[in-house]
Design a protein that fits this description.
This protein has 524 residues and is α/β, with parallel strands linked by helices. The protein has 20 helices and 19 strands. The protein has helices at 7-15, 17-29, 34-42, 73-82, 103-111, 172-184, 218-228, 245-254, 268-271, 279-287, 296-305, 327-331, 351-361, 380-390, 407-416, 432-439, 452-456, 475-486, 491-505, 508-520; strands spanning 2-3, 52-56, 60-64, 91-95, 117-121, 127-132, 153-157, 187-193, 208-213, 234-238, 259-263, 290-293, 311-312, 337-341, 369-373, 398-402, 419-422, 443-447, 467-470.
Length: 524
């Protein structure tokens, strides 16, 4: 590779001056956090195709294959440390051929100003920009100057008023700490109250330890944290609930340099009722290092309303069970089935809207059936019988399967479903089932709860749309989008877009790597 003139850099700087200004405020609040800068910009670019190189003073080269994202810098550094290579100079090269990635080096150089930048080209004419990240190593050192993994010991606690269930192990609660262990060698634990719950899914997560606290009072969790805080580098909490205040404050008091990641578990109705300027609430939130929203609309909403910075950390899909992963094979087995996986009969899920909508269009989609999987509230069972009484011909086309504990059988429902549907009134960000539905290639029919743009894609968005949406509680509107999807000539394209969206936004490994990078570079 040879160096080219600086004129293209000057021209490009002028071209992106407005864009640089737009992100300048965010990056100034996170000075030195290269990984956060790259992750922020990656949200708006096709960074998944970036080619990365590591050039160690011409002594040794490491090449990461196409498909690796720049937010994987911590993983790359780990590999380099394991090889005993010289880390004084690390360069990352981003090709200008792909999307707007050529802007990233200039953003970093202009706003942070701590890295060397030079333009380079290869024989094929591709243009690259090289960055020297030698200063980055200082942020990964303890007082003795030796490099050290700052997140060796990771503990996810169920919180002061909650206990983990077996299924939580294969949700973000369990998958994030497990991947920290699998990818970075962290010692990981999930801590919960001893309710007699068994955890058969634990065998699928080798290296993940479950600790059961005998004292089921809220103080039991606080006492555990107090007694073990100095041995915890990262504490993971679910929910910005007031009852977690003592857990957070106790941890930071006993281990001021420890990190906290809190998944906010938010929706707009609940978050807007929080008295966020209450002194005890502010104290808790001030101590949390990374606060994660599971959908971008709520992230944007809270960043406007709250004095804290909120990150977007989607609830992703991790193929822990080894299900079929080839998109073409997945899409080849689709049936004319509409699937809903939810807690049926709860006010939140509004299953009655789905049932009434299906009844209004059933004659227009005679080959389609509706499958409902999940627990059924006792008082909702009388409604179901009354529904069958009004629509006796739908008894064979609207089928309730109850709660399916076997994940293999549950995933088979996703794989054969042509359309996945939720008529929720509220959700805590992006529901866990969304990532699995997208990965299984289901076109999506949703009501417009907070996370719907992340799931389906707004119609004016450049990303690939994979479904349709209707207003909350609008039975006629929901019936319309279901009928349009079932009879669409483009249904296979929407299903293909769903697979693409799963890989782009809901890949648990990519999500975990980006979160890990933000955590290790978060300000103490």
């Amino acid at each position: 590779m040879g160096t080219i003139a600086n004129e293209p850099i000057v021209a490009l700087r002028n071209r992106i001056a407005h864009s640089a200004a737009e992100v300048k405020g965010y990056l100034q609040e996170n000075q030195g956090c290269i990984n956060a800068a790259l992750s922020l910009l990656a949200d708006e670019t096709s960074y998944g195709l970036v080619r990365e190189y590591l050039d160690l003073i011409d002594k040794e080269q490491f090449r990461i294959s196409e498909g690796t994202g720049v937010s994987e810098m911590p993983l790359l550094m780990k590999r380099l440390k394991a090889s005993d290579s010289d880390l004084d100079r690390i360069k990352v090269l981003a090709t200008s051929v792909i999307s707007d990635l050529w802007e990233i080096p200039l953003f970093v150089k202009e706003i942070i100003g701590k890295c060397e930048i030079r333009a380079m080209s290869e024989g094929d004419g591709s243009l690259y920009y090289a960055l020297d990240f030698s200063w980055l190593n200082d942020r990964s050192c303890k007082g003795d100057g030796k490099q050290e993994n700052l997140l060796k010991r990771v503990v996810a606690v169920s919180g002061a008023m909650y206990s983990f269930s077996n299924v939580d192990l294969v949700k973000a609660f369990g998958i994030i700490p497990y991947l920290f262990h699998a990818e970075y060698g962290c010692d990981v634990k999930m801590v919960t109250y001893d309710t007699g719950e068994e955890y058969p899914y634990q065998k699928l997560l080798p290296g993940l330890e479950i600790v059961k606290i005998k004292d089921k009072r809220p103080v039991g969790m606080v006492n555990y944290v107090r007694e073990n805080a100095v041995d915890i580098d990262l504490l993971i909490l679910q929910g910005a609930y007031e009852y977690n205040h003592d857990v957070v404050v106790t941890y930071k008091k006993e281990n001021p340099t420890g990190k906290i990641f809190m998944n906010l578990d938010q929706n707009s109705e609940w978050m807007d009722r929080i008295i966020w300027d209450d002194p005890s609430y502010r104290e808790m939130m001030d101590l949390v290092d990374i606060k994660g929203s599971t959908c971008k609309p709520m992230q944007d909403h809270l960043n406007e309303k709250w004095p804290w910075h909120i990150d977007c950390v989607h609830q992703g899909y991790y193929n822990i069970f080894g299900f079929e992963d080839d998109m073409e094979k997945v899409l080849a087995n689709k049936e004319k089935t509409i699937l809903c996986v939810a807690r049926h009969g709860t006010w939140q899920k509004a299953t009655e809207v789905l049932l009434e909508a299906f009844a209004r269009i059933e004659a227009m989609i005679p080959e389609w059936r509706l499958e409902l999987v999940g627990s059924i509230e006792e008082e909702f069972k009388s409604y179901i019988e009354e529904y069958y009484g009004r629509y006796p011909l739908l008894r064979d086309r609207v089928v309730f399967f109850g709660n399916i504990q076997d994940r293999q059988k549950l995933h088979e429902h996703f794989l054969k479903a042509g359309i996945f549907t939720l008529t929720s009134r509220v959700e805590g960000g992006t529901p866990n089932v969304i990532a699995e539905a997208l990965k299984a290639g289901c076109a999506i029919a949703l009501t417009r709860f907070d996370a719907y743009p992340d799931t389906v894609g707004p119609l004016d968005d450049e990303d690939k749309v994979c479904g349709l949406t209707a207003d909350i509680d609008d039975i006629d509107g929901y019936a319309d989008i279901l009928e349009r999807l079932c009879n669409s000539d483009d249904l296979d394209e929407l299903q293909r877009n769903a697979c693409w969206r799963a890989d782009r936004y809901f890949d648990a490994i990519k999500i975990e790597r980006e979160l890990y990078g933000k955590l290790i570079h978060a300000e103490q």
